[in-house]
Automatic annotation (TrEMBL):
It comes from Shimia marina. It holds the Pfam family NTP_transf_9. Coiled coil: none annotated. It comes from the Bacteria. Residues 15-104 form the DUF427 domain. This is DUF427 domain-containing protein.
Length: 114
C-alpha cells in the first residue's frame, strides 16, 4: 500500500448525520486520500454543530498526519463513542486539515454528498 496523501476540495455539498439530526453541512469540505484506503471527508469545524461533540480521552498518532484527538457524538438517545477526530496540529504536508473534523461512518453516523 502506498502512503501518499492527497487533499483536494470535496466537490458539492456534504452533510454528516447522527441520531436523526444533521450535525453539519458544508460546501467547503476537503477529501483526503491516503494510499489504497477509501477517501475521508474533512469538514471545516465552523460548519459542524460542535455542541453535539464531547472530548474523548482517545488519541492516536499517524506518522503522515500527526496526533489525532477524538470526540464522541451525543444524540438524544445515545453517545456514539470516539466517532469523530481532528488533527489539531497536523504535520506541515497536510496542514490543510487543521481546524477540520472527520467522522467514522457506520449505521449510526453517515457522511454523504447531497
Amino acid at each position: 500500500m502506498s502512503s501518499k496523501i492527497t487533499i483536494r476540495k470535496a466537490e458539492g455539498n456534504w452533510v454528516v448525520r447522527a441520531g436523526g439530526a444533521i450535525l453539519g453541512e458544508s460546501t467547503n469540505a476537503l477529501e483526503l486520500s491516503e494510499g489504497d484506503m477509501a477517501p475521508v471527508i474533512y469538514f471545516p469545524r465552523s460548519d459542524i454543530a460542535t455542541a453535539f461533540l464531547d472530548d474523548s480521552d482517545k488519541r492516536t498518532h499517524c506518522p503522515l498526519k500527526g496526533d489525532a484527538s477524538y470526540f464522541s457524538i451525543v444524540t438524544k438517545s445515545q453517545t456514539i463513542k470516539d466517532s469523530a477526530w481532528s488533527y489539531e496540529d497536523p504535520i506541515a504536508d497536510v496542514a490543510r486539515i487543521k481546524d477540520h473534523l472527520a467522522f467514522h461512518t457506520s449505521d449510526l453516523v453517515t457522511v454523504e454528498r447531497v
